[in-house]
Amino acid sequence: MNNLMIRVASLDQADTLQEIHAAAFSSNARFFPDDMEEEDGEEELSFRSLIEMQVKVILSIFDNNNLIGGAVISTDEHNVKVLERLFISPCLHGNGYGYLTWEKIEKMYPSSNGWRLRTPSCLINNVCFYVNKCGFSIVRVEDVGNDGIGMYVFTKL
C-alpha cells in the first residue's frame, strides 16, 4: 500500500476496471434484499464509454503498479464535486485502500464547494466508511422504495 498511485484511466484499462467494479458490487449483493427494486432508467456502467466520452473523470487506482480499483468523479451545476463511484477489489477490502484513495482524490481534486455522494442505505459498511473515516455527513435519504431501501445522500464541505 506504500506505492498507491491514482491516475486518469486509459482505454486499455476499461475492461479491468469493469471487472473490478463488478466484483466489488457483487461482494455487497448479500446486503441487498432479495426483492429490492431497481431504479428505473439505470443503465449498466460502461467504463469504456465513460473513458471515451471524457465527460467525467475516471480514475485508476494502482498499488505496486497493479490495478486494484477505480473511481468516477463529476461536477454538478453548483460546482460541487460528486464521487459517483469508489471501488477497490474485494480481496483488498478492509486494508485501508479505500481511505487512502479518498485522501489522495481529495487532494488531487480540491473543491471549494464541497463533495457529494450517494450510497444505498443497506450498505452499512459504506455508510460508516464515509461518515466515520472520510468525514462526510448524511444530509437526506432519497428514492426509498417499497423494499425500504433508499439512497443516503452525503456531503462534505
TrEMBL record:
Domain of life assignment: Bacteria
Q: Which InterPro entries match?
A: Acyl_CoA_acyltransferase, GNAT_dom
The chain's coiled-coil residues are none
What is the protein's given name? Answer: N-acetyltransferase domain-containing protein
Domain N-acetyltransferase per the UniProt entry, residue ranges: 4-157
Which lineage?
Answer: Bacteria, Pseudomonadati, Pseudomonadota, Gammaproteobacteria, Moraxellales
Under SUPFAM superfamilies, the record lists: Acyl-CoA N-acyltransferases (Nat)
**Which GO MF terms are attached to this record?**
acyltransferase activity, transferring groups other than amino-acyl groups
Source species, please? Answer: Acinetobacter variabilis
